[in-house]
Every structure is written in structure tokens, then in C-alpha cells.
Amino acid sequence: TALLPYHEKKILAHVRQLPTSLPQGPIEIKTRGGLDLDTDHLQSLFSKATPTRHTLFIFRHQKALTALLTTRL
Fold first, then answer.
1. pTM for this structure?
2. In 3-state terms, what secondary structure has residue 53?
3. Helices (H), ranges, 1-73
4. 4-22, pLDDT tens digit by residue?
5. How far is CA 3 from the centre of its chain?
6. Which residues contact 22 (CB under 8 A, 6 or more apart)?
7. Which of 23, 43, 53, 59 is 20 to 30 A from residue 67's alpha carbon, by CA?
8. Residues 72 and 19 sit within 8 Å (Cβ to Cβ)
9. What CA–CA distance (Å, rounded) separates 20 from 5?
């Protein structure tokens, strides 16, 4: 649903604007490229903000951390 630069506040703002008509459930966090991020902390942080089931992929793209938010059906 979105490709964003990795900034927690910007991702939270985007997640809060998602429609609530999609299936309910927690957000799943996946990292690529051996990033040293606390995925448990991020999952609890973003799951409080989203009413729907999503997967958030965090990876390095052209030396910058990038977040790809996808909807799980």
C-alpha cells in the first residue's frame, strides 16, 4: 500500500490513516539485509496504530532505510 522512508513517526501517521474496512489483525514486521532493529518493539508500536492486517518490510535501498507496507488478505 505504501513505500516510505523509514521514519517511525511517518510510518505511524500513514498507518493511522488506513481504512478500517479491511480485515482486522496485527501488523507483522520483517527486515531484509541483516538490519539490527528490534522487530518486537516495532510490532507492538505499529500494531497499536493499525486496525488492519499488514506486513511492514524494512530494508536498505540505495543506502537509506526504506519501509514497504503491504496488506495481508
1. 0.82
2. coil
3. 8-16, 39-47
4. 999 999 988 888 887 766 5
5. 10
6. 51, 52, 53, 71
7. 23
8. no
9. 24
